[in-house]
Design a protein that fits this description.
This protein is α/β, with parallel strands linked by helices. The protein is 32% helix and 21% strand.
């Protein structure tokens, strides 16, 4: 039975008990025209995060196979596991959609997790649908339809060399696509030098494009049933302006436009107060109970002229505020041994701030420190764990991702003592190219991005420490 893509999607939504949002109809019509060659057989679909675009593209692939079972489809994503999710979704549709029930093969070998072959008359060696990660070897593959689903993500585009490598890989798809085949890109931009450029000279220059931001030009929600204006405003506050513009409005923002504005900092001068009630420890700052803490140490040799060794301590209260309580720049005295002296300083901070675990960045000098710090804790009977961390993300992007949202929504508080450190100057001088000092910013970002320790009940440790205070 022949039907349009919109009808195919509507039938599926009826089975799932779902309605058909207006923006899904727009996407379905765009894909239908693309397949029927009323537009060029290349296309770009950009829609806000969680818009359901990947779900619709999975339905698109299943619909194509229902129309022409001999079609070979390649699903390409930033990594293999993401492409497999799309393949799994398409398999579920074929198994359950009333218009595709005859496509499932009899052999289980042709129904694998990352590839499958439907019932067809052709003897192609390539499967009907194949999942591949961007870095996979695709020599010898042939496809009639190529779907590039989220090939641009932070780990594939956060440096110039990665962006160039991604473009080179994607350029090789021309040798995989059969004559007259269809190529579809879907995603959201993650960099100002995004591949999703349809302007002349852009990577996808001249391609037909459907772009659906969360808010239209009149400020109305593209999906009001799920995203009311109140929810959109709350999302904007949580994610920060840059991420919201990039991922929800599809307008990538240069890192230099980040709101690392010192004037947005809120300061407090209250001490950290520890009390016990019924054997349960309670920590408060300014009368507000703390329910979590993150401590991050970004170490170096601590010389006055080089990178700074910085340890940061951030607390979290019950209503979403964060409190930068301690930020120590460790400069090693000439007479002291660098690693041992720094471990002693970090151990002292852990005891003074009731820290249950310290995240230690092990890039560079840090790879030698976990064992030394654990020995320091054991020698002084300090109940504090050491969590080893390796930072792979671009430092500037990590700092912005951590600080942008709390600065904009007014939830980031800083202790007055931090004014005596280089932290405020680092914020004022911050540059996305990494040419300015940002050691303190990096340590604070580590605290904000790491999962804060939150435990409801915890027995009093046998080692020297205090009753549990966290939730």
């Amino acid at each position: 039975m022949t039907c349009s893509l919109i009808e195919f999607i509507w039938i599926w939504n009826q089975i799932q008990g779902l309605s058909l949002p207006q923006h899904h109809i727009r996407i379905g019509r765009f894909l239908n025209r693309l397949y029927n060659n009323k537009l060029k057989r290349n296309g770009l679909l950009m829609a806000f995060r969680n818009s359901g675009k990947s779900t619709l593209v999975g339905l698109f692939g299943a619909w194509i196979l229902s129309q022409k079972p001999e079609t070979r489809i390649l699903i390409l994503s930033a990594d293999h596991s993401l492409a497999k999710k799309m393949v799994h979704h398409m398999k579920q549709i074929i198994e359950r959609h009333p218009l595709t029930t005859g496509l499932k093969p009899a052999s289980a070998e042709e129904w694998a997790s990352d590839r499958f072959t439907v019932r067809r008359t052709s003897g192609f060696r390539d499967p009907s649908v194949l999942a591949r990660g961007l870095t996979a070897n695709m020599t010898g593959c042939r496809a009639d339809v190529i779907i590039c689903d989220d090939v641009e993500v932070p780990k594939t585009c956060d440096t110039a060399s990665k962006r160039e490598s991604m473009r080179q890989k994607l350029s090789e798809l021309d040798y995989i696509l059969t004559p007259g085949g269809l190529t579809l890109y879907i995603g959201t931009p993650h960099t100002t030098e995004t591949i999703y450029q349809i302007t002349p000279g852009g990577f996808l220059g001249g391609w037909p494009c459907l772009k659906i931001p969360l808010l239209d030009q009149n400020g109305q929600s593209a999906w009001p049933e799920r995203y009311s204006l109140e929810k959109i405003e709350a999302l904007k506050q949580r994610s920060g302006p840059n991420k919201f513009r990039s991922q929800m409005m599809l307008d990538p923002v240069p890192l230099g436009e980040s709101r690392l504005d010192v004037r947005r900092l809120k300061f407090f001068n209250d001490p950290l107060i520890y009390n016990e009630a019924n054997g349960q420890g309670i920590l408060r700052i300014g009368g507000k109970q703390m329910i979590g803490v993150s401590c991050w140490w970004d170490p170096s040799f601590g010389s006055p002229s080089g990178d700074k060794s910085v340890v940061a301590c951030v607390f979290f209260d019950t209503v979403g505020n964060t409190y930068l309580y301690r930020l120590d720049y460790l400069t090693v005295p000439e007479a002291e041994e660098a690693t041992a002296w720094q471990c002693g300083c970090v151990r002292q901070l852990a005891e003074e701030c009731f820290i249950p675990a310290i995240h230690l960045e092990t890039n560079g000098i840090g790879k030698f420190l976990p064992a030394l710090l654990r020995q320091e804790f054991a020698r002084h009977r300090t109940a504090c764990a050491v969590v080893e961390e390796i930072s792979r993300q671009n430092k500037a992007a990590r700092i912005i991702a951590a600080l942008d949202a709390p600065l904009m929504n007014g939830s980031f508080w800083v202790h007055e003592s931090v004014k005596q450190t280089p932290f405020l100057n680092e914020m004022q001088d911050f540059l996305p190219n990494g040419t300015a000092h940002d050691d303190g910013l990096d340590a604070v970002a580590g605290c904000l991005l790491s999962e804060p320790v939150r435990l409801k009940h915890f027995q009093k440790p046998a080692l020297k420490h205090y009753s549990e205070w966290r939730f």
